[in-house]
Amino acid sequence: MKHLLSMKDLQKTDIQTILNRALEFQQLASADLTKQYTVANLFFEPSTRTKMSFEMAERKLGLNVLSFEAGTSSTLKGETLYDTVKTLEAIGVDAVVIRHEQDGFYEELLAGVNVAIINGGDGSGQHPTQCLLDLYTIQQEFGKFEGLQIAIVGDIAHSRVAKSNAEALTRLGAHVTFLCPPEWQGDYEAVNTWDDLLPTADVIMLLRVQHERHDSTTHFTKESYHETYGLTKQRYEELKPTAIIMHPAPVNRDVEISDELVESEKSRIFKQMHNGVFVRMAILESVLKGRS
Amino acid sequence: MKHLLSMKDLQKTDIQTILNRALEFQQLASADLTKQYTVANLFFEPSTRTKMSFEMAERKLGLNVLSFEAGTSSTLKGETLYDTVKTLEAIGVDAVVIRHEQDGFYEELLAGVNVAIINGGDGSGQHPTQCLLDLYTIQQEFGKFEGLQIAIVGDIAHSRVAKSNAEALTRLGAHVTFLCPPEWQGDYEAVNTWDDLLPTADVIMLLRVQHERHDSTTHFTKESYHETYGLTKQRYEELKPTAIIMHPAPVNRDVEISDELVESEKSRIFKQMHNGVFVRMAILESVLKGRS
Amino acid sequence: MKHLLSMKDLQKTDIQTILNRALEFQQLASADLTKQYTVANLFFEPSTRTKMSFEMAERKLGLNVLSFEAGTSSTLKGETLYDTVKTLEAIGVDAVVIRHEQDGFYEELLAGVNVAIINGGDGSGQHPTQCLLDLYTIQQEFGKFEGLQIAIVGDIAHSRVAKSNAEALTRLGAHVTFLCPPEWQGDYEAVNTWDDLLPTADVIMLLRVQHERHDSTTHFTKESYHETYGLTKQRYEELKPTAIIMHPAPVNRDVEISDELVESEKSRIFKQMHNGVFVRMAILESVLKGRS
């Protein structure tokens, strides 16, 4: 694998290769890398989980990690992303992880740069490493994707997680259903109420209400969103015994999910984060091996 | 030791154990840790000394240090401290060092998180690692605490250093006296003038005037504070030959202490910082060993 | 070498020693250091290239790198640069790389501090490590300095690169010519047009238009600057076959240089960045060895 930009670039066998390697890393396999590689994490949007998870994965692989800080870089002097990445390439960086507010930021990089690019989230586009860790978590739980009922709930139109996951899960044989406010539906077809989902769902994937991407026209209060689209204690009780709850986090407690359910028995929210490190180790190893 | 939150949690023997181990580290002892631990330093308030000192201690212990930056983290998206720490726990962090503007920030963490917490300063609460490095510095100088005359001078009410130190030193047998402007006296009993301290003090602990925690009602100018409560050259001359001067820094030169005295013969201000690394090594090693 | 503050401090033989050692590092030589040294990079102005290049050099030398962040340090509480550097010294830092907006920031440090100081750019003063990597790049290309025709084009008055380079190159036997808008000429004598340079120049050193250091009185538009002082495709065609183009970057594309020329055959812009790592390894090793 040369880059990881979008789930669309991955064949089913590519996905399975990554998930298998992640499992080996979870079982304490060592990195299969023959030289000292250097990576830089370029986060132009706030992040705790993804950034820290990548950094942990990089350290576990024994990589050299440069501490790029967007807020004190020459992007303040107007330097383009292309020139920033070319600079890092020139000083010897092998791979960059980039989170950027622009959809498809990587398009302008592909022709000219010679470093491996991992998409850490592009605007309202894709978030393939989150998708892969979600797949890993589902496979860990159910041992398969074929025939699973997956419900994705929330702000589908703005969510890069929803897009990546819906596409990949469908391709892997799962059946994906959406529930969302009409104005956040985008091009997706959605069901109307939780009642259409609760009896059959194997996985409830909650999406974060992204206050920072919405304008003031949204007509929800926290309370009204929670009442209509949030996972309440009552809805939780109606889930199948084997169902699990996922959320890419950060969670808005008592909005997407009742505060008391975040660490409930069916919740895999912190498990997802835990799994993310192994999945990112597999991705980093793959793109670095793709360079030699 | 599971966490280090407040000096109140430490018995006299706990304190002595830490000071002894710090001395061993100063004498080039190696860390007694059997696995690769990871720590993250979460500083939600500005810091040079404490943050850099912890990072140096962590590197000297051979720990893996994640570069968490509060200003570019998901706390900007409203993520709570609890969820941030749970996230770090999920990705494999063993210990967190936290500085936070809220008094007792750690209370909400204790029930739910499974990482070791070291308090790097909580609001106007405690600053136990500063206290322990102050104790180390005093013991290095005098070989004991019993019977020492300690004068704490300045903004006692707002100072987490004052609180931690006064409590611990009294418990260790020292006699602590305070000198401060009446409005910064808090619940402490204070003497009126330097003349009450100068002839007998073994240790002068100056506190930083914390401009960032005061409102505009303070009636001091820099000059008037220095004249009344600052350590001037004249007062310095009246100190006992064996007396030493301490300050947690950053120093407001010519406010708490005359510029020319910061690096004077009796000053231990930079010595304190030097000692801090060994004391923090001892603390980190202790909480990490407390996890296995 | 104890510090690296200004090119003026370096004899011709000192320069050649650094360039030779940089070549050895490019040819994969190992660091000749006998203990574990610690460095901190203090960048009080935005930087990608210089900061990342130093960090890469430090890692390649096997140094311990502390992640000082000016924006979250105690300089926010008014701590002076002197006290910040003394603090780092106290906790065990051996060398600091400093970029600071104040010309000659290092003057106030020299008397009191005992760490090695490397000037990473001081206001409109000097930028000696950029100068040395430029010299390395020129020597790599031409094998000599004697008799070379060097044209420095752009904002000479505000450029720390121009000052360092003009002085050093002249001393090494090159002939330096300037081309610039009259208001940015400073104390230098300049030619009038590109036509005076194009037929003879071996090296075109373009300088960045530093929008952040100019007030609103500058009468150029991007287009008019490019037309009169920029390297256009037409001017490029008139260069000698062996001529090379240099720029300290970040480049303002289509201002100092036509966008399409940044990665042209004669451009050494990214080569300069690549070389910078080896030159900085040589400098760091030299000042660290100067401490024992």
From TrEMBL, chains A, B, C:
<dbReference type="InterPro" id="IPR002082">
    <property type="entry name" value="Asp_carbamoyltransf"/>
</dbReference>
<dbReference type="GO" id="GO:0044205">
    <property type="term" value="P:'de novo' UMP biosynthetic process"/>
</dbReference>
<feature type="binding site">
    <location>
        <position position="208"/>
    </location>
    <ligand>
        <name>L-aspartate</name>
    </ligand>
</feature>
<dbReference type="InterPro" id="IPR006131">
    <property type="entry name" value="Asp_carbamoyltransf_Asp/Orn-bd"/>
</dbReference>
<keyword id="KW-0665">Pyrimidine biosynthesis</keyword>
<dbReference type="GO" id="GO:0006207">
    <property type="term" value="P:'de novo' pyrimidine nucleobase biosynthetic process"/>
</dbReference>
<keyword id="KW-0808">Transferase</keyword>
<feature type="binding site">
    <location>
        <position position="130"/>
    </location>
    <ligand>
        <name>carbamoyl phosphate</name>
    </ligand>
</feature>
<dbReference type="Pfam" id="PF00185">
    <property type="entry name" value="OTCace"/>
</dbReference>
<feature type="binding site">
    <location>
        <position position="77"/>
    </location>
    <ligand>
        <name>L-aspartate</name>
    </ligand>
</feature>
<comment type="subunit">
    <text>Heterododecamer (2C3:3R2) of six catalytic PyrB chains organized as two trimers (C3), and six regulatory PyrI chains organized as three dimers (R2).</text>
</comment>
<protein>
    <recommendedName>
        <fullName>Aspartate carbamoyltransferase</fullName>
        <ecNumber>2.1.3.2</ecNumber>
    </recommendedName>
</protein>
<dbReference type="InterPro" id="IPR006132">
    <property type="entry name" value="Asp/Orn_carbamoyltranf_P-bd"/>
</dbReference>
<comment type="function">
    <text>Catalyzes the condensation of carbamoyl phosphate and aspartate to form carbamoyl aspartate and inorganic phosphate, the committed step in the de novo pyrimidine nucleotide biosynthesis pathway.</text>
</comment>
<dbReference type="GO" id="GO:0004070">
    <property type="term" value="F:aspartate carbamoyltransferase activity"/>
</dbReference>
<feature type="binding site">
    <location>
        <position position="250"/>
    </location>
    <ligand>
        <name>carbamoyl phosphate</name>
    </ligand>
</feature>
<feature type="binding site">
    <location>
        <position position="160"/>
    </location>
    <ligand>
        <name>L-aspartate</name>
    </ligand>
</feature>
<dbReference type="GO" id="GO:0005829">
    <property type="term" value="C:cytosol"/>
</dbReference>
<comment type="similarity">
    <text>Belongs to the aspartate/ornithine carbamoyltransferase superfamily. ATCase family.</text>
</comment>
<dbReference type="Pfam" id="PF02729">
    <property type="entry name" value="OTCace_N"/>
</dbReference>
<feature type="binding site">
    <location>
        <position position="127"/>
    </location>
    <ligand>
        <name>carbamoyl phosphate</name>
    </ligand>
</feature>
<feature type="binding site">
    <location>
        <position position="249"/>
    </location>
    <ligand>
        <name>carbamoyl phosphate</name>
    </ligand>
</feature>
<feature type="domain" description="Aspartate/ornithine carbamoyltransferase carbamoyl-P binding">
    <location>
        <begin position="2"/>
        <end position="140"/>
    </location>
</feature>
<dbReference type="InterPro" id="IPR006130">
    <property type="entry name" value="Asp/Orn_carbamoylTrfase"/>
</dbReference>
<comment type="pathway">
    <text>Pyrimidine metabolism; UMP biosynthesis via de novo pathway; (S)-dihydroorotate from bicarbonate: step 2/3.</text>
</comment>
<feature type="binding site">
    <location>
        <position position="49"/>
    </location>
    <ligand>
        <name>carbamoyl phosphate</name>
    </ligand>
</feature>
<feature type="binding site">
    <location>
        <position position="99"/>
    </location>
    <ligand>
        <name>carbamoyl phosphate</name>
    </ligand>
</feature>
<feature type="domain" description="Aspartate/ornithine carbamoyltransferase Asp/Orn-binding">
    <location>
        <begin position="146"/>
        <end position="286"/>
    </location>
</feature>
<feature type="binding site">
    <location>
        <position position="50"/>
    </location>
    <ligand>
        <name>carbamoyl phosphate</name>
    </ligand>
</feature>
<dbReference type="GO" id="GO:0006520">
    <property type="term" value="P:amino acid metabolic process"/>
</dbReference>
<dbReference type="InterPro" id="IPR036901">
    <property type="entry name" value="Asp/Orn_carbamoylTrfase_sf"/>
</dbReference>
<dbReference type="GO" id="GO:0016597">
    <property type="term" value="F:amino acid binding"/>
</dbReference>
